[in-house]
Amino acid sequence: MEQIQTLSTLRGRVVLRDIVRELRYEKQVSSLTTLLTCWRLCAFERDVYRYSKRQVTVIHTLGLFRGTSLWLQEVVNRFYFSTINSLVYLGAAILLVLVSGYRFTDRVDTRLVLSGVGLEALMLLILFVVMFFSPSDDIEMEEQSGENEESSEIRELISEIGDISTDYAGAGARLENVVTALSDITARQDELLGAVNDVARAVSFAAHPQPEFIETMRQTNLTLQAFHLNVQALVEATHTLRREEIQRAVRAEVERILEQRVRL
User: Which residues pair with 2 in a beta bridge?
Assistant: First the structure.
């Protein structure tokens, strides 16, 4: 478990701000509860781990006044300054409305205007206190220097990681090129194997015809023979028809000649 001398040290201030972020954004604690818890931590509490997931203990507490001062600097000023500033503007707006109503109408009482003035004065007093306990520039510079050192180390680490990533990316690109080349070679080998298989199948078919092929050839031969017979029959029928036509023509011519002679 980590031990811190006081929360007013640089490390303690960082832990306190982390606790505020944890309560507000991770645990979704209300603003009032967050303020009260952080004030208790700044002034009296030693066991920080009771209120946060950070395993931290404080050796020396700051007490009421110093703890409240630290609370105003690191919690109220850093995380709630804009809220307080907005409340001051809201009070000013309410005061302007009350003064205008008192000036131009009779519905606004003098006591209400005085109450608005008192509220605005209270808001301005709170703003004064918060701004009075603003963190000093020295503390911010020391924190920034520490953050800059950490940032430089982080940047160096990121740069080294970037170089390693670049090397891995180059190696990955070269491996992709090798894989692409191997894929092309494999595709070409597949094409060559397919061509060789086709040639081997054709040679095997030519050397050892299949029974289906033999049967098909036999049927083709039978069909050709039948076609040849049909052609021969057709030729004979044609010759017969031609002889009959010649005989018919000769008879007609003989009959014509005989008729001419008989008339003579």
Answer: 56
Residue type, 29: V
Structure tokens at 199: 């040639």
How remote is the C-alpha of 4 from its chain's centroid? 43
Kindly report the average pLDDT of the chain as a whole number. 79
pLDDT in tens, 129-140: 888 887 765 555
CA distance 171 to 210: 55
Average pLDDT over residues 32-52: 84
- Integer angstrom CA distances of residue 71 from 13, 20, 150, 246: 10, 11, 26, 140
Pairing of strands 56-58, 2-4: parallel
**d(C-alpha 229, C-alpha 60), whole Å:** 127
What is the pTM for the complete model shown? 0.47
The answer to whether 130 and 84 have CB atoms below 8 angstroms apart is yes
Tokens of 230: 């049909």
The pair of three-digit structure tokens given for residue 167, joined into one six-digit string: 């090397």
Positions of E strands within 210-252: none
Contact 31, 45 (CB under 8 A): no
Measured between alpha carbons, how far is 42 from 61 in angstroms, rounded to an integer? Answer: 7
How is residue 44 annotated by DSSP? T
Q: What are the structural domain ranges in the chain?
A: 1-79, 157-208, 209-263
C-alpha torsion sign, points 190, 191, 195, 196 = negative
